[in-house]
Amino acid sequence: MDGASLAARQVGAAARHARIRFGGLRGSDAAWAMAFLVPYAAVFVLFVIYPVGYGLWLGHRPGLYAELFSDPIYLRTLVNTVLFLAIGVNLHLFLALLLSGYFLQKSLWVKGLLLVFIMPWAAPAIPTFISIHWMLDGQWGLLNNLLWFVLGINGPSWLTERWLTFATVIVAYVWKWTPFWTVILMAGRTAIPQEVYEAAEVDGATGLRRFIYVTFPLLGNLYLVCTLLSTIWTLGDFNTVYFISGGGPALSTHVLATLGIRNAFQIGDPSLGMATVMSALPLLIPLVIVLMRKLSRSQVQL
Amino acid sequence: MSGGAAAAGRRRSKRLRRRLSKAGQVLIGIVVLIWTVLPLYNMIEVALRPKDAVFSGDLFPAHPTLIGFWDVLTENYWYLTHFWHEMGNSLYIGVATALLTLAVGTMASFVIARMRIRGAWAISNAALLTYVIPMSFLAIPFYRVMQDYGLGDNLWAVILVEVTFATPYAIFIFTEYSASIPIALDEAAHIDGAGPWGIYWRIYLPLMAPAMVAVGTYALLLAWNEYLYLYLLLSSPGNMTVPVALGQFLNSDEAPWNLMMATAVVYALPPVVIYYAFRRYMSTGLTMGGVKG
């Protein structure tokens, strides 16, 4: 528990106190408050409640799930999704954790490098993923040309075998999203008071031990929230798989988000498509509950 | 004598260690640089190739030419005949999303943070709940819902979807940022006879400007990153946008790769420029209260 959070709690307590003291609003003030809330309430009802409700209704028939589970493509997709979450999320967050320390160095060239490093996140996803897709072309792609020039070897045909393709999807994902989390974790590190480090140094904790015993415990909560959020967003990630592999070869690298769209619009069965994405709910709901508790309690925000 | 030599040795090994760690840092820097730049370099490099050199094993374009960019900007290729119209659609969606998100977000956060009403927590929780719904999971119902609202094949369908998913973030950031503006200002204005609208318009909004720049940029980037909803909700050629046009050619064998990459570069430029111009605000916004863990 650091100073900032204590301060936040005190502010929160003061605000609660003020609310009790002033009570509710009266007359025209209350009318204004309602008027200010109408736009968001309308957005929430029209574009959250109704689509969510309609979606749940679309995918509610148990028969749909029986159909899904007898489909080998669906089962493969399930495996892919779990692997994508387990490997992709942890890999890029851990890299972000390490790089957030690296980029806090004071030297000028590191700061310059950070400006470049942030680019994959600032650039829109579709152009860069299309570029990566073309880079991976077995015959004319930049990657294999590079392998030939530097190592003198013929690179594989990246997008024609399931696991190789799947690996490139994860790598593209890591490329796109590591910068974002690095910036978040950098903010987390700068919020750790310098005195803590000084005290740790007096006690002899430097280097790796400083990271394990000081930095990581203090960042732990933020890191957990990042992991939860990233897992939820990754579950809904459509662009990476769609643009890098398109679910191929032979539908072997789909994830739930892309297979759902395929079932709904290419096969033309919206209920089946909705059931495909809704089969992630047993994973999604616990994540959301834990995350909402964490977010509303500790005020971590992104 | 020997003690002095040992001390010198220690100094030397310490200096060596420092140099090694410096070399390690530079090495990491180089790896990070290559890793980051490679796909971006590929985009520009292919865009600079003339048409007949698209399929070649070069690492650098042998005869770099701007003709690809010229063809894109002058719509001089059959799949590019509506490039500026498509770019205009993307821009329209992005700007409308940003403005609407700012309007809805500031109003809601004004009530939550400044008006002390009961039940403000319900709004916060609604926002939080929206924030944790994976956006693509609602694409299937949205396809029907937008038709029910009479917004089939209408740019506003996409704008409203983007606003729905951008507003929760806006409300968090604004509510958080409001805490840095003294409530005494509101009270002083209230005593001077200003009503809620006056306080919102003349005091709240101007002081929120930095957070609004951050959130506006965020909303614009969110819309600019979109593909799925553009592809599903818009169908007529007049409502075509750049990402969908690019996506059409992804899996065709005769894709004009140099022109696609030139299009990609042009499409990627506006958000990159905007991001770097407002970077200072972005990082305050993104990381504000980042870690009160």
Describe the overall structure.
The complex is a heterodimer of chains A (302) and B (293). Chain A is mainly alpha-helical. Chain A has helices at residues 3-22, 27-58, 62-69, 72-102, 108-117, 119-122, 125-135, 142-151, 162-190, 194-202, 207-235, 239-244, 256-266, 270-278, 281-298. Chain A folds into two domains: 1-58, no CATH class; 63-298, MetI-like (MetI-like fold, Orthogonal Bundle). Chain A is built from 15 helices and no strands. The longest helix of chain A has 32 residues, at 27-58. Chain B has two domains: 2-73, no CATH class; 78-287, MetI-like fold (Orthogonal Bundle), CATH 1.10.3720. Chain B has 13 helices and no strands. Chain B starts with a helix and ends in a 6-residue tail after the last helix. In chain B, 45% of the residues are buried. Residues 287-293 of chain B have low confidence and may be disordered. Classes of the chains: A mainly alpha (302), B mainly alpha (293).
Q: What keyword list fits this structure?
A:
heterodimer, A: 302 residues, mainly alpha, MetI-like fold, 78% helix, globular, B: 293 residues, 2 domains, 72% helix, disordered C terminus
